[in-house]
């Protein structure tokens, strides 16, 4: 099970003697404790106990218990026996995020066409900070079911979608990625800033990004950037398949066609 580390220094401290509802500083401190409670749940967690939440957040047990009760009332958490799980209300609110909803709606028909043409796993991703976040994923029966999932995250530097986005983003993002560290997922993960920079230059020339077994051994991905208004990168579209099944010419051609279609549709939709 993956535990997401929380930066304690980034959490606001309560004012002495303050309590819930007593002023702006108090509200900030409450929100500062609610956030790590919600973020304590990873994609692998169905539910967490109160002890799990206390351990992962570093917040006092009594405070976590009180806030969890309020979050249950609001629908942001649900009770699962003696444990807690994320509530349906979070899903409802997430579906209202306008930009991401439009991106998914525009991309989905082209992703379905790409699935029919290649019979491989198709992803559409955007970047958030130094990660890619998968907005949509469709796969055939034989497709890739692990490593990536809708709303899941992976680093920009070792994914095809991430490289496609990084290549057409400001240089400051590359610097941020390098400063955060290029950690290996497999023995094939590129961890040299110089090699990564050279790869991004080729991606800008060719308009096509690839990663070979950098995230998972035996699998390869190809991706193209997708652009919105003013040719700003809006995301990336990719095909992922076992390395032995990748057809470079067929997959690259189908991918470029779908990517251009999404870019044209986005320019009028966003």
Gist of the model:
By secondary structure, this protein is of the alpha+beta class. It is built from nine helices and eight strands.
Kindly list the characteristics that best describe this protein.
19% strand, 44% helix, alpha+beta, Arc Repressor Mutant, subunit A, disordered N terminus, Beta-Lactamase, two-stranded antiparallel sheet, 270 residues, 9 helices, single chain
Task: Walk me through the structure.
By secondary structure, the chain is of the alpha+beta class. It has 2 domains: 86 residues, Winged helix-like DNA-binding domain superfamily/Winged helix DNA-binding domain (Arc Repressor Mutant, subunit A); 172 residues, 2-Layer Sandwich (Beta-Lactamase). It is built from 9 helices and 8 strands. Strands 5-4-3-8-7-6 form a 6-stranded antiparallel beta sheet, sandwiched between helices. Helix 5 runs antiparallel to helix 9. The protein starts with 23 loop residues before the first helix and ends with a helix.
Q: Which architecture of the largest domain per CATH? A: 2-Layer Sandwich
* CATH topology (level 3) name of the largest domain: Beta-Lactamase
* Number of H/I helices: 9
- Major beta-sheet overview: 6 strands, antiparallel
Proportion of residues in helical segments: 40-55%
Order of strands across the main sheet: 5-4-3-8-7-6
- Please report the distance between the alpha carbons of the first and last residues: 38 Å
CATH class of the largest domain: Alpha Beta
Supply the CATH superfamily name of the largest domain.
GAF domain
Structural class: alpha+beta
Average the pLDDT over all residues and give the rounded result: 84
- Strand percent estimate: 15-25%
Task: Give the helices and strands as they follow along the chain.
Answer: HHHEEHHEEEHHHEEEH
């Amino acid at each position: 099970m993956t535990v997401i580390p929380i930066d304690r220094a980034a959490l606001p401290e309560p004012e002495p003697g303050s309590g819930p509802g007593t002023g702006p500083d108090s509200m900030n401190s409450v929100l500062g404790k609610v956030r790590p409670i919600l973020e304590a749940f990873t994609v692998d967690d169905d539910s967490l106990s109160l002890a799990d939440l206390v351990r992962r957040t570093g917040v006092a047990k009594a405070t976590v218990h009180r806030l969890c009760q309020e979050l249950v009332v609001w629908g942001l958490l649900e009770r699962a026996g003696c444990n807690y799980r994320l509530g349906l209300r979070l899903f409802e609110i997430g579906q209202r995020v306008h930009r991401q909803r439009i991106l998914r709606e525009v991309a989905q028909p082209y992703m379905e066409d790409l699935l029919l043409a290649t019979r491989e796993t198709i992803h559409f991703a955007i970047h958030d900070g130094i990660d890619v976040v998968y907005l949509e994923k469709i796969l055939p029966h034989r497709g890739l079911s692990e490593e990536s999932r809708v709303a899941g995250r992976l680093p920009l530097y070792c994914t095809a979608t991430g490289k496609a986005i990084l290549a057409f983003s400001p240089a400051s993002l590359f610097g941020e990625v390098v400063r955060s560290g290029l950690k290996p997922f497999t023995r094939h993960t590129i961890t040299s800033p110089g090699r990564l920079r050279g790869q991004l230059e080729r991606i800008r020339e060719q308009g096509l990004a690839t990663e070979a077994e950098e995230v998972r051994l035996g699998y390869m991905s190809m991706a193209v950037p997708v652009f919105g208004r003013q040719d700003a990168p809006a995301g990336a579209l990719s095909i992922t398949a076992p390395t032995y099944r990748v057809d470079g010419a067929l997959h690259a051609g189908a991918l470029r066609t779908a990517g251009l279609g999404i870019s044209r549709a986005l320019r009028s939709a966003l």
